[in-house]
Design brief:
This protein is mainly alpha-helical and 295 residues long. A 3-stranded antiparallel sheet has the order 1-2-3, with no helix packed on it.
């Protein structure tokens, strides 16, 4: 039976994440789903749960999930109960001594520099081709998250100064320089092709989909995969492949980790350090392949 008290707590926590923490809609939705699932399984008010109740829930009801999903759920519950404790709705935090399972660190997939050049070499015939060229050049030039890319407006890009203004996670603002390639592609798209994409009146979003509306994450990834197939690029893709490639190639050519951290908008440098593992792994592979005694 669904608890009205729990539903109220979930709604209040949702407002807290939205207005105080300024989390994205996707993140808030994930938190809410985790709490709704807990409410369905455990027949108690959240404020009365003890450590043993939550441990039993994790062991019995989450056991079939992968470590990443379990960790995410535990992270949600930790945030939720920390919020309840701060707001004096519980005396003891039942999540305080519960730790997440260790996740194996997965290295992000990146494209080689030759694959990037191949991907960006788009045959420019239609307005959509010029849009795609501008999107990909901008992504590789700046290392944007896909969510940051699709939320850009015309006002956020200054090709004369070669800068783009980004509002990242937690609405944190950062300014990123742009390459000449990106500026040229953006100017071509904005000046001569973007207006042709409107179908139902104008809007201020920089990148428009085939219906003249704001580009979606799914739409961007569909374009990326289609171009990769056309170019016969075999590397596994994710929506952030260009972002990962941007960081890896900068590191490979001598950029320092702190600069890459700022460009990517990472609040913690440990998130940036994963790219050193990629370059180290490739260095070891090259050593084994090309050193006379390495084979």
């Amino acid at each position: 039976m669904k608890s009205e008290i729990n539903q109220t707590l979930i709604d209040e926590f949702e407002s807290y994440l939205m207005f105080e923490k300024k989390y994205s809609k996707n993140t808030i939705s994930s938190y809410k789903e985790d709490l709704i699932k807990l409410d369905k399984v455990i027949k108690k008010d959240f404020t009365k749960l003890e450590k043993k109740d939550i441990q039993k829930y994790i062991q019995d009801d989450l056991k079939d999930l992968n470590p990443s999903s379990i960790s995410r759920t535990i992270s949600t519950l930790k945030s939720f109960y920390k919020y309840l404790k701060i707001n004096n709705q519980i005396k003891i935090n039942p999540m305080q001594a519960i730790s997440s399972p260790k996740k194996a660190q997965k290295l992000p997939k990146v494209l080689s520099e030759d694959e990037i050049e191949n991907l960006l070499d788009i045959n420019l015939k239609t307005d959509y081709d010029f849009r795609n060229k501008a999107m990909l050049e901008l992504m590789y030039s700046s290392g944007l998250r896909v969510s940051e890319l699709i939320n850009l407006t015309l006002n956020d890009v200054d090709t004369k100064s070669a800068l783009v203004k980004i509002f990242g996670k937690g609405s944190k603002e950062r300014i990123i320089p742009l390459t000449e390639y990106a500026c040229e592609a953006l100017d071509n798209y904005i000046l001569y092709h973007r207006a042709n994409l409107f179908k139902h009146g104008e809007n201020n979003y920089l990148f428009l989909n085939n219906h003249g509306e704001k580009m979606t994450r799914q739409g961007f990834f569909k374009i990326l995969k289609k171009l990769a197939q056309e170019k016969n690029i075999k590397t596994d893709f994710s929506p952030h492949t260009l972002r990962h490639s941007f960081a890896t190639h900068l590191l490979k050519h001598g950029a320092d980790l702190r600069s890459i951290q700022e460009l990517l908008g990472h609040s913690d440098i440990s998130s940036t350090q994963i790219y050193t593992h990629i370059t180290n792994e490739r260095l070891q592979n090259n050593y084994k392949e090309f050193h006379p005694h390495g084979k």
